[in-house]
Amino acid sequence: MTDESTVSAQVSAPQDVDNSFSPESLEAQGDAAADYIEVLLDICDLDGDIDIDVQNGRPYVSVSADDPRALRLLNRADTVNALQELARLAVQSKTGSFSRLILDIGGSRDARKNELAVLVDRAVARIEEGAAQAALPPMSSYERKIVHDIVADRGFSSHSVGEAADRHTVVTRA
Questions:
Q1: Which residue, 57, 80, 106, sits at the end of a domain?
Q2: Does any domain span residue 135?
Q3: Whole-structure pTM value
Q4: Are residues 101 and 41 in the same domain?
């Protein structure tokens, strides 16, 4: 026999719905990350313009400056990745949800995409010279996604192998 109060409590209990990917949530995540980056720029006494966008279901925060030299200390790949992780933690602390936000400082993401394209072109060249496959160095999931897209554009195939920090992309013929 079921108690009526138990049934009504079960029916009216809120459902766990993950709203972290709704447009409003993504914008809130971008705002929280921009607030964090703005404070960081102020502490470092650096001038920069912050733009917030949503691209491919991710908050995308970019920092630019009239003088590209103003951001030269922050736009190195390792520094951008570290700041991105800190911004993600700030977003999670403020919103309570995990964020897949992307941070771009001074065009660092475009520069890295160009570097990845060169790596892919070298891998494709090795395959065209007779190699069965070509492995690229370990990289983040975001960078691997870019690599998979570039590889597909070149008419080849790719897949990721390895675990955690050793996860990397292998390029093969399609």
A1: 106
A2: yes
A3: 0.75
A4: yes
Mean pLDDT of the chain: 89
Residue 13: pLDDT band with limits 50, 70, 90:
very low
72 neighbors 63 (Cβ within 8 angstroms): no
Angle between the N-to-C axes of helices 108-128 and 77-95, in degrees from 0 to 180, rounded to the nearest 10: 120
Specify the length of the chain in residues. 174
Q: How far apart are CA 144 and CA 26, in angstroms?
A: 22
Rounded to 5°, angle at Cα 85 from 80 and 87: 90
133-135 and 168-173 strand pairing: antiparallel
Whether 126 and 99 share a structural domain: no
In this model, does residue 16 exceed pLDDT 60? no
Structure tokens at 43: 């502490």
Q: What gap in Å lies between CA 65 and CA 108, rounded to an integer?
A: 13
What token pair was written down for 23? Answer: 């447009």
Q: Is residue 128 domain-resident?
A: yes
